[in-house]
Specification:
single chain; mainly alpha; about 0% strand; elongated
């Protein structure tokens, strides 16, 4: 399978993601954000969560905050 084949196969969903301003590389951070949400639900302090996840994933605290901000950002409605 070529890159063209993949793009053609998933053209619809990819166009929706682009229109919503999603960055495909954020898929690498899904587990981090899921853990962030779980820890927050357990009432851990945000500064502790960010420090813990930064150490776990080898990221700076600032990077973790940016990832969380991107994941929590509301997307604009799709145009018809």
């Amino acid at each position: 399978m070529t890159k063209y084949d993949i793009l053609k196969l998933y053209e619809g969903p990819i166009r929706i993601m682009l229109e919503c301003g999603l960055n495909i590389k954020d898929i690498e951070h899904l587990a981090l954000y899921e853990q962030y949400c779980e820890m927050k639900k357990k009432k851990h302090k945000v500064s502790y969560i960010v420090n813990y996840l930064g150490e776990k994933y080898g990221l700076t605290e600032r990077a973790v905050y940016k990832i969380v901000d991107r994941m929590e950002k509301r997307v604009k409605p799709l145009s018809k």
